[in-house]
Amino acid sequence: MSNIIVVGCGRVGSQLANMLSDNGSNVCVIDKNAEAFANLGRNFNGLTVQGIGFDEDTLVKAGIEDCDVLAAVTQSDTANLMVTEVATHLYGVPHVIARLYNSDHERAYMQLGIDYVCGTSLVAEEVFGKTVSGHGAHLDTFGEYEVLRFSLNLKHLDRKTIRVSEMERVHDIRIVAFERADGSASSIPTGDSVLYHGDTVLACVRHELIDQFSVYIQG
User: Fold this and answer.
1) What distance lies between CA 35 and its chain's CA centroid?
2) What is the largest CA-CA distance in the chain?
3) What is residue 137's predicted lDDT score, i.e. its pLDDT?
């Protein structure tokens, strides 16, 4: 059973909180406006805390010291970013997800290693999928496989480049597409394609191989 904090109790936050609670998680919802908790409905069996989502006292009251996942889904990109920074760097929450409104900031979020959902529809469902998958780079699940999107980390190899064929051979995965870190090019790769540290990569990975493959994912 996971301990999950949802910051923001608007349409998305309340829907997400109920989905997570129905899935068996311990859920606490934070919102600066106490009236927003009415969005949760009468059947919500989690906790609520009134306060600012990036305020340390509020987060401690919500249980951040024992938190497994935090989702910042307010209507402010700035507030969501501040929440993720506090949760990640001050409290070491293992999995932090932010809602992103302005797609112009998407590349910056990728480079900062922030797990996010960008869009206006089905946001609660996407965050829910990321939460229950247990992995920040999760995009979707197909049977025994997960589709992951992440910034490539090669520091553990003390290298700046790696061929697609090497990654696929060693880890029995499939690299679906990649984009250069500076956005200068994107491609569906061949085995001879060269990936650079910091490139954005889309990969299909079997569930049981994700832990060993995670060294390539910038956290």
Assistant:
1) 28
2) 57
3) 59
